């Protein structure tokens, strides 16, 4: 495996992060980084696949694309027209004055680097030419199960929050009756699935 290819995955992220940061400056709102987060992984995967052309490259693009585009669209719709998230308001407060400039590395740059590091199993899977095996099948099944779980949880929460009378109330039906964070459970399943494919590719 050619590990010298891994750093190339950081290149598109290093372009996307400053672009997102520039967009956020006049708006004084860094919510966009949430939407960029899954797109960072898709950009890195496309880069790895183009360079490595491994056995799993094409299918991996489809899997990461499904996950990334669904999540990006969901987050973009959720944050559209909304004030800056409380998490980022706290970071802004703790790093003022000058947060506008600092957010380039505190928010956008940091998340780009983290995405690149977390994309390691995607890199391994994208460039490996190891034959398909049972771990790949298990990983794909887990990814689709996780996607279905988190998409359903997000839809249920969005529908619950829509009526004004539910403001301040806690959703405790559907998947939310089983877990306080079913969307995060689904996300964990997706990434365990990608991890299994990475292990399969390196076996």
Q: Can you offer a commentary on this structure?
A:
- The chain has 203 residues and is an all-alpha fold.
- It has eight helices and no strands.
In short, what is this structure?
With 203 residues, the chain is mainly α. Helices cover 71% and strands 0% of the residues. It has 8 helices and no strands.
Helix content: over 70%
Shape descriptor reads flat
Described by strand count, sense and barrel closure, the largest sheet is: none
User: What order do the SSEs take from the amino end to the carboxyl end, as H and E?
Assistant: HHHHHHHH
Oligomer: single chain
Strand content: under 5%
Return the structural class.
Answer: mainly alpha
Low-confidence stretches: none
Secondary structure tally, helices: 8
Number of strands: 0
Distance between the termini: 11 Å
What is the topological layout?
Layout: H1 10-24, H2 32-52, H3 57-79, H4 86-94, H5 99-118, H6 120-127, H7 134-161, H8 182-201
Features:
203 residues; mainly alpha; flat
